[in-house]
What we know:
This protein is α/β, with parallel strands linked by helices. The protein has helices spanning 2-13, 30-34, 59-62, 81-92, 99-112, 128-134, 138-149, 177-184, 215-226, and strands at 42-43, 51-52, 71-74, 120-123, 162-164, 188-190, 203-207, 210-211, 231-236, 238-239. It has one domain (39-239): Rossmann fold (3-Layer(aba) Sandwich), CATH 3.40.50. It contains 9 helices and 10 strands.
Amino acid sequence: MIGKIKKIILDTLFPVICLGCRKNDCWLCEECFRGIPLRREQICPACENKTTVSGFLCISCQTGRKFLLDALISSVSYENQNVKKMVHYFKYRFVFSLSEPLARLQTKALLSHHIPLPRAIIPVPLHPRRLRWRGFNQALLLAEYISQNLAPPLKIPVLDILERRKYNKPQMELGNYQDRLENVRNLFKMRSGAVFDNIKGKTVYLIDDIATTGATLEECAKTLKESGVKKVIAVVIARQTLKK
Ligand SMILES: [Zn+2]
Ligand SMILES: [Zn+2]
């Protein structure tokens, strides 16, 4: 509710114009959308060092296998000003309709990679307190768009089955890698009463907006694998590099 009131006030203060060219009366016009290039180079999510195909773990990180996320695809570059503006308006100015162009970028990126289609699409959950503040779970909105547009005839479902055990500080507020790891350790569990038999032994896509260290995604992957999921491919709009 508070999120909705904030949104109404903000909509009045900031009329809708294209964040890119300021010409058209939509948040991002088709021309500006097409001007955003997909990110070609993907890196191993564990060492964040080696370039890999579709953001899968590199060979050395696969051996010994302490890392549970199988791949992390970053759709576009966060350095792109239109991407940065859209993400900001989406998350902090509560413009939930921006989920559409943003998830469209994720869908376009997914279709450009040769990766298996998932059995289900799983959003990173918000804590109920955070959900009340924002009024919507941005990852769930992205997941819903991707589910409807990735391969429509297959009707790949969105399963909102993860839950946060406690309220933690937003990762954005933490400066270093170790603090971020600690902040999310054992944070997630399967939502009580969730039905997830159909994803056991299967591949799923895990959806979030922005990844920095990938610690949140890794913790979600851990929970999903403990529940029998075989492969977890995370897909984010973009990665933001942490200033070390
Ligand atoms: Zn435009
Ligand atoms: Zn690696």
